[in-house]
Amino acid sequence: MLPRSPLFVIIAPFLLAVGLITGAVWHYGYRAALSDLARRGSADMALVLGGLVSDLQRYRDQAVALADHPTLTALNRPDTRHQDSAARRLLTAAADRTGAAGLYYVDQNGNLLAGTGARLPEGLATSAPFRRAMDGALGTSHSMTADATERLFHFAAPSFGPDGKVRGALIAIADAEAVEFGWRGLQTAVFLMDDLGRVFLSNRSELLGWRKVPQDTVLIPPGGTPIPFGLSQTAGHEIWQIDLGPYLPRRALQISQSLPRIGMTGAALINVAPARRIAGLQAGAVAGVLLFFGTLLFLAQERRRTLARANALLESRVADRTATLTRTNLALRTEIRDRKEAEAALKRAQAELVQAGKLSALGKMSAGISHELNQPLMAIRQFAANGGAFLQRGEPERAAENLSRIDEMAHRMSRIIRNLRAFVRNENEPMGRVDMVRVIDTALEMTGARLGHDAITLDWQPPQTPIWVRGGEVRLGQVMVNLITNAADAMAKSPEKRLTITLAPGAPVTLCLRDTGPGIQEPEKIFDPFYSTKLVGDGEGMGLGLSISYGLVQSFGGKITGRNTDSGAEFTVALEPWPDPDAQEKGAA
């Protein structure tokens, strides 16, 4: 036989102890819950039976009150027998008020003098209540047919004459079904048994007519075979176990109470399932607590054992790990230094790439810029010659007019050269407040010659007030020049050439450029470096313009997207607005 493991040796006694404690708690809780059920059931049954006795008292009191009514006692004289119609109306009205099944006034020989019916029910004149009434006392009895279809209560009150002798009786009949109607909705099964053990009244119709054999665990249904049932005693309480239908508990606590006033015994069958459920919950809670703390103790013990083994193992590995970590630390420092150098080189390469993009765009615009500078130079020469001629003729006013035009041409050339210098220089200053309207106007001045040469119609309605954004003026100008030149390149072979620029304030500020070109072939790749739809070697660029623009816009905290429209391509630039100091002051207030 294999030896038992230490784990089983520890757990098995603990589980056995938990089972014993749980069973004891369940047994104690079940006994306490049964006692509580018995107390509440007895109180409920006393309330129900008290109401039943009160209802029956109503019929008995009615019989006593009507027995000496003048209208009825007058019927005992032969000369007043013709007044039976008034007596009949009296009895009918009284039966309607109390719900009695019948009221009958008879003489001392049992002859019917007046009643709610034309004939006296069979056997009523010879019944025990009538005989007791003839003895001068109140008679009470009940009757039930074999199949329990008719169940009646009988009350007979004596009627005394002037000489004090009994001259007749008033017999009241009450239907048991009308009496038990008020307590049929109770959840607890309540029933009344007569001296023979038959169920005479119940709020469960399936029990009517059943008979319990005294001193035996057998129930006999009307006209059926006896049915045995289980009977046990728990904490002095009688527990029945029987299946009598879906509306009766299979396991029930039976309590009884004697009713000598009506000659019956009241009983109730209370479902013990709530008591068992409460006991189960209590036992489950105790078992859960014991298992929880037992598990904690077991886990704590196992943890201590595991920690001891792990500590010994860790101590043996500390020296090896220390040497390995030292070597790894040196390698990480070397790798960090290499990564920092690579990051610095990457930043320099990115700056050079941005500058190369500027120079590439400037190369594309060189012919247009030369044309823009050549026109003012030729105009200056012409205005200078005209001014000298006017001075020789003695017309200084005309000469001054030509000199003012020369000044305008010089300002125009200065503005073009200033924009070029600003565009070409390598900008590294931090972000600040930039007027986006001015950036667009400057970019259009630099690309105006290209747009005019390609006969591109410009649709741009600048706002009347500046729209401030967060960014760098030169870098935003480069983004605008790249987008405008790309749109011009795309519309080179289009029948309709139109460039639409819109600028909308808000959060974010939205800039939209729409062309009438062929659209974007692969929208998901347009911002990848070196991606271009131009043929290799045609000298039209390396596919870096949009990639540079994407990086510049992202460095400002913005976003640039491109998509196809029905007429061409559309690029949208979203930028963070520069906070308005006036709005901030109002918000703070």
Q: In words, what does this structure look like?
A:
The chain is of the alpha+beta class. Among the domains are: 181-275, 2-Layer Sandwich (Beta-Lactamase); 432-585, 2-Layer Sandwich (Heat Shock Protein 90). Helices cover 50% and strands 20% of the residues. The strands form five sheets. The chain has a six-stranded antiparallel sheet with strand order 7-6-14-13-12-11. A hairpin with a 2-residue loop joins β11 (230-234) and β12 (237-241). α9 runs parallel beside α10 (473-490). Mean pLDDT is 76; it is low at 535-540 and 583-589.
Q: What is the CATH class of the domain at 432-585?
A: Alpha Beta
Helix- and strand-based class? alpha+beta
Task: Using the coordinates shown, work out and report the CATH topology of the domain at 432-585.
Answer: Heat Shock Protein 90
Number of E-type strands: 21
3D shape = elongated
Largest sheet: 6 strands, antiparallel
**Averaged pLDDT, please?**
76
The CATH architecture assignment of the domain at 432-585 turns out to be 2-Layer Sandwich
- DSSP strand (E) fraction? 15-25%
User: Any idea what the CATH superfamily of the domain at 432-585 is called?
Assistant: Histidine kinase-like ATPase, C-terminal domain
Percentage of residues in helical conformation = 40-55%
List keywords for this structure.
disordered C terminus, alpha+beta, Beta-Lactamase, 589 residues, Heat Shock Protein 90
Q: In a few lines, what is going on in this structure?
A:
With 589 residues, this protein is an alpha+beta fold.
Topology:
Layout: H1 6-67, H2 70-73, H3 84-98, E1 102-107, E2 112-115, H4 128-134, E3 139-144, E4 151-160, E5 166-175, H5 176-179, E6 189-193, E7 199-202, E8 211-212, E9 218-220, E10 227-228, E11 230-234, E12 237-241, E13 251-259, E14 264-271, H6 273-364, H7 366-393, H8 396-424, E15 432-435, H9 436-453, E16 457-460, E17 468-471, H10 473-490, E18 498-504, E19 509-514, H11 545-555, E20 559-564, E21 569-575, H12 581-588
Parallel strand pairs: 16-18
Antiparallel strand pairs: 1-2, 1-5, 3-4, 4-5, 6-7, 6-14, 8-9, 9-10, 11-12, 12-13, 13-14, 15-17, 18-19, 19-21, 20-21
